[in-house]
Structures are given as structure tokens and as C-alpha cells.
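Translate structure to sequence.
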């Protein structure tokens, strides 16, 4: 493994800097300290903003082909260091190595996509009401961007925000989660090697998430803030950003439903359920949280799902064949324990799992006939728990799926093409997976509705998030 990619310094204005304090990054699978990283605060955050502000005019005016080439070189370096980045990611997040390797490919795909998409930030010509006028629109970079990313996808959540911003001509201050800063610093080193000028891309590490978040949200030199995390924190940042009327895009909490209709291919639905639920031990914003199974196929689906869940291998993500790793921390484990106990107390049947193991591990679990009043029906569990609810009619299943303030992802299985269109249009979510448990890719818009967020990442729409649309009216 390339130890030079395990960095302990933050990255400001083209240099790696030490902090006066440090904090430990812990491997959740073993409890061991991986590294002690620079613990910066609000003062350093403000310096990073000033560096990005100073670097912006020159980067904005750099030819798009030059920006694109540098972003593309960043992609090439990420892919060249795929194995090492994946191991770092597994050590600090706990996810199985196979998932980390897949995330490097997924995260890098956004870099490749936006390196090219920036060349297609088209404007338009508009028919004018007078023959003496010409009406045109152009897109210009929004300015200094603050990106705040979570621990569950330490690479992909960075590239999905940073790549379009850099490619279109914005400068960036990245604040990665304190649980997983090492992946961010590794890709910052690769960005440095790709040749981005000083101040264009900055990474501030530290434990003061509240203080730095407020500085990024309220500093008037920051023109845009992009955040992925909890709805609660998103509300706070949105209120703070309102003080400077800042552009925002938020990808927040989820409570994804997974509906299995009585005409579904049950084997395919079980395979999709495993994919949609157990990736990163259920700790993803689009992870299935509530399974709604039509009564006619409920027992069959529950039996086959339970059999598949019992075969999942739990353990350290670096070990061979592991499919389910640890929870990220004790708070995450405690929430899973509370949700399972509450569901059983409200009448749910335990079909598999249901116990915490040594350390931060929890057995992959299946609960059947869960009461809709249970905590797991209303809150995002973020753990390896399948909660099965029973329904009778199609409209009932849709109503149960929509009965949440969240609206990020929804999934359902059916072989009836008319039902597929009908249900897709009625589900209240920004993304719908039909006969699949995996919906994310760089070419498609990622984002939610209701209290799951605002804005879109990925696709051509993801580039628009980092631009201002300017209208030009030529007279005479």
C-alpha cells in the first residue's frame, strides 16, 4: 500500500499544513487509530475561504479546455491509485473492500463525466420581440463553493460536488466528515498532482463541524453551499445561508420504501432488496428502510429474504468475502438496537439476526409484520435491518410508502408495465428504482423532494447547480 496517500495535514492554498491540534481517525472495525489528523477551526476555515476567493477570478477565466484537462488528469490519478484509495476508505469507514473498490469507480465516474460536461455548458438564443434586439443567455460559474460531505461515501460525495464545481470554473472549500478525512486528503493530494492552481481546491479537516459549517454558510465570499447529511443539520445550514441569500443544494435524510407487488419476480425482488438494503451495512441515504410486501406474496418473499440475509458474511471489511461491516460509531449502533427492540415490542416477528456483536457490529436482521407505529417506520435507521410491512391493495401500498416527510429514493418490483408507469408517477420521491435496488450513476440526476433535499447532483443538471444563468439583451 502507498503510505504516501495517508496524509495527516489539511490542504490550503496548494500546501499541506499542520494544525495546532490533532484528532484521531478510528477504524470502526477494530477500534484502532489509523492516523492523527490536523484539527482546524473557524479561523483556518476563514483563511481557506479567502484563498479560494482570491484564486477564483483567474480560475474562472481559464480556458474551459484547460480546466477540463486538469479535471480529467485528476480522474486518471484516482483510477491509477484505486487499490490504495479503496483500502483507506475501508479502514476509516468500515465498508467491505469490494464496496470501496466499487465506490472508487463510481466516484471517479463523476470526475470523468464533468470533465467533459463542462465543455457543454450551453447558453441559448431567444427570439426577440423587436428586430433591433438580440437576446442571449450564457452560463457562468457561481463563484466560491463550500462542499460539506458525509462519512458514508468518503469519495463519491466529494467528487459529485467538487468535480462539477472545478470543471465549470468555481473554486472549492471541502469540509469532509471528521470520521473519514483520510480519503478526502488522499484525493486532494492527487488533485495537487493534477496541477490545480493554489487556492482552487482546499480541504479543511477538523472536529468543529458546527463552527466551520456556520462560517461556510454565512461568509459572504462563499456564493454556494452544497451539503450531504442529515435533514436536521440541513435545516440549520439553510437558515444560516439565508442571511447572505446563498445558493444551496442539499441531499438530506431518506426513508426509502421498497414495494413488492403480487405480480413481482420474487427472486429478483429479493436480490434487489439485498443490494438496496445492505450496502455499507445499510448506512446510505438511499438504503431501503421500509419494505412493503403485498399480502399474497408476503410469506414467500419473507422466507426467501430471510434465507438470503442469513448467508451474509459480517466482519472486518478488509477480510476476504465480508459483505457487511461495522456501524460507523456507538451512536449508530445504539440507534439500531433501539429500533429493533421497539419494533419487537410493538409486535414484529424476528426472522433473522436481532443481536449486536462484539465492537460496532450488528447482525443482518429481518423483522416481519412490523407495526406502522414503530420507530423504524418513521425514522431513518441507518443499519442492516429489513423491516417488512404487509399491505393489501396497490393504492394502500403507495399511500404507506408516501407516508413520510422524506422523499429521496423509492423502489418497487412489478412485471406489469402499466403498473410500473402508474406507481412511478405516484411515488413521492426524487428517484424511483423499478425492478432494481440500485439507481445511482453519474449520468442521472441524484436528489430528493420534500425534506430530503433541494437541487440535483450528477447529470447535466448537476453542472447547472454551480452556474448562474445570465441574460444578455443587445439593442440597437
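Result:
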Amino acid at each position: 500500500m502507498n503510505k504516501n496517500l495517508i496524509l495527516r495535514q489539511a490542504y490550503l492554498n496548494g500546501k499541506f499544513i499542520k494544525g495546532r491540534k490533532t484528532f484521531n481517525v478510528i477504524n470502526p472495525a477494530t477500534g484502532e487509530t489509523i492516523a492523527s489528523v490536523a484539527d482546524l477551526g473557524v479561523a483556518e476555515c476563514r483563511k481557506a475561504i479567502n484563498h479560494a476567493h482570491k484564486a477564483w477570478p483567474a480560475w474562472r477565466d481559464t480556458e474551459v479546455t484547460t480546466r477540463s484537462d486538469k479535471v480529467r488528469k485528476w480522474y486518471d490519478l484516482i483510477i491509477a491509485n484505486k487499490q490504495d484509495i479503496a483500502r483507506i476508505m475501508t479502514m476509516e469507514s468500515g465498508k467491505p473492500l469490494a464496496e470501496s473498490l466499487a465506490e472508487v469507480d463510481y466516484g471517479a465516474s463523476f470526475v470523468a463525466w464533468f470533465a467533459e460536461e463542462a465543455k457543454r455548458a450551453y447558453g441559448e438564443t431567444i427570439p426577440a420581440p423587436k428586430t433591433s434586439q438580440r437576446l442571449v443567455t450564457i452560463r457562468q460559474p457561481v463563484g466560491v463553493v463550500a462542499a460539506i460531505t458525509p462519512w458514508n461515501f468518503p469519495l463519491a460525495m466529494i467528487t459529485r460536488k467538487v468535480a462539477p464545481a472545478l470543471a465549470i470554473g468555481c473554486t472549492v472549500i471541502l469540509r469532509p466528515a471528521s470520521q473519514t478525512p483520510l480519503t478526502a486528503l488522499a484525493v486532494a493530494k492527487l488533485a495537487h498532482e493534477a496541477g490545480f492552481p493554489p487556492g482552487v481546491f482546499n480541504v479543511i479537516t477538523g472536529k468543529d463541524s458546527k463552527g466551520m459549517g456556520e462560517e461556510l454558510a454565512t461568509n459572504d465570499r462563499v456564493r454556494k453551499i452544497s451539503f450531504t447529511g442529515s435533514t436536521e443539520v440541513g435545516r440549520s445550514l439553510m437558515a444560516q445561508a439565508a442571511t447572505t441569500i446563498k445558493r444551496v443544494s442539499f441531499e438530506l435524510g431518506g426513508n426509502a420504501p421498497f414495494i413488492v407487488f403480487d405480480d413481482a419476480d420474487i427472486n429478483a425482488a429479493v436480490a434487489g432488496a439485498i443490494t438496496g438494503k445492505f450496502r455499507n451495512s445499510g448506512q446510505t441515504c438511499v438504503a431501503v428502510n421500509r419494505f412493503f410486501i403485498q399480502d399474497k406474496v408476503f410469506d414467500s418473499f419473507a422466507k426467501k429474504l430471510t434465507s438470503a440475509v442469513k448467508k451474509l458474511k459480517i466482519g472486518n471489511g478488509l477480510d476476504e468475502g465480508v459483505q457487511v461491516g461495522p456501524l460507523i460509531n456507538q451512536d449508530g449502533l445504539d440507534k439500531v438496537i433501539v429500533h429493533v427492540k421497539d419494533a419487537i415490542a410493538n409486535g414484529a416477528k424476528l426472522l433473522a439476526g436481532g443481536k449486536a456483536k462484539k465492537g460496532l457490529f450488528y447482525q443482518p436482521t429481518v423483522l416481519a409484520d412490523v407495526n406502522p407505529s414503530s420507530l423504524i417506520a418513521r425514522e431513518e435507521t441507518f443499519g442492516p435491518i429489513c423491516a417488512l410491512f404487509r399491505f393489501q391493495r396497490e393504492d394502500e401500498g403507495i399511500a404507506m410508502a408516501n407516508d413520510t416527510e422524506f422523499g429521496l429514493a423509492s423502489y418497487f418490483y412489478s412485471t406489469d408495465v402499466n403498473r410500473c408507469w402508474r406507481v412511478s408517477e405516484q411515488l413521492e420521491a426524487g428517484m424511483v428504482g423499478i425492478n432494481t435496488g440500485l439507481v445511482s450513476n453519474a449520468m442521472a440526476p441524484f436528489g430528493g423532494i420534500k425534506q430530503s433535499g433541494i437541487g440535483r447532483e450528477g447529470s447535466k443538471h448537476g453542472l447547472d447547480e454551480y452556474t448562474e444563468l445570465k441574460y444578455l439583451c443587445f439593442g440597437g
